[in-house]
Amino acid sequence: xxxxxxxxxxxxxxxxxxxxxxxxxxxxxxxxxxxxxxxxxxxxxxxxxxxxxxxxxxxxxxxxxxxxxxxxxxxxxxxxxxxxxxxxxxxxxxxxxxxxxxxxxxxxxxxxxxxxxxxxxxxxxxxxxxxxxxxxxxxxxxxxxxxxxxxxxxxxxxxxxxxxxxxxxxxxxxxxxxxxxxxxxxxxxxxxxx
Length: 194
Description:
Elements: H1 2-6, E1 25-29, H2 33-46, H3 48-56, H4 58-64, H5 66-93, E2 95-99, E3 102-110, E4 113-120, E5 124-130, H6 134-139, E6 141-148, E7 154-161, H7 163-179
Antiparallel strand pairs: 1-2, 2-3, 3-4, 5-6, 6-7
Helix pairs in contact: 2-5
């Protein structure tokens, strides 16, 4: 039972819910880690505020308002923890899965709000990469835009790490699928997560 519970912390890139028979995962993508680290590091910086206030006003707080200070500090840290937990959860649950048959985009918009979009590889017409800004250029992340032939005109995967490699990997899988070649000939020939 304990090993079953601990298994949720192990990342599996080879299976997911609603996986079809004979469907193999080629890529499991999340946004660039900088996207998650920015709000978490901001929360950590704000976590220093009560410590600095306590250091500056130590004698005044200890003499008269220690209980009130501890209450509001606890409340403040709880709010910061919820803020950090929210952004880490959204980072973890927002995924793009590329298989040998389709692309699945799972967007977690809130704790209880999720949108799942699916695109079959035979509908992919073009893939564009967009990198805007100094930080995305330096850290090599950007948007991957997949143009389709279907009702949905395009799928946009925001802030993907190394978007050029992601585009090349998806195009390789699309061309193999369209030509009837299986994207996996052996474990070593599979397209790796970038």
